[in-house]
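Issue 218. Parser rejects a valid record. Input:
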Amino acid sequence: MITVTEKIENYIKDNFCGKIDGAIGSSLGSSFVGQLIQRENIHIDHGIFGSPDLDQSGKLSAWLQSKLVVPLLTSFTRNEKKRTKTREKLKSFFEMDDETADRFMGCFARFSPESIKNEYYTDLLTWLKDDIHVEGTKVHFIYANKMGGKYLKRYQKHFRDPEIREFDMQHEQWLFGGEQYTAPVLRAIDEFMELKAE
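Output the parser choked on:
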């Protein structure tokens, strides 16, 4: 996580004089947005978090979670039967169509299970501080309320006075659940970017 965060910081320094209008991340991408804001090596006017979980844990718990979760994320690559079962679960849970479910599985199929495990593991170990506040940066959250209230509490714990927009959806459903989820979230993102950071 930190190695990739440093690469992003260097890119922003080299190409944008160390300052950008906004950064958006969903799930693991949100962890990078949080680190960029917290580290203050570059400046972001608007940090936008797309329904993140912001999970954090100790080394043993992170190791166990990565050992359990990664097979679930990659099992469909083994045979067509598992691929079909995973497709049906994605369609049911996230309301994806067949094409979107196949594209989603294709994202995970491009990487080795070991690489996915390393990303998942280091994400859990790369903590955010509490009450992060950076002058001139406004933090915004897309809150998918079907994830549960504990995530809302995390957003408020890690960042001082974040703007939170609540949506009736699952984690990341706005990315691939269809127009009824995507359109309102994109409107909210446009509105976030028009706000003046304090």
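Fixed in the parser; the record now loads. The first helix runs from residue 2 to 16.
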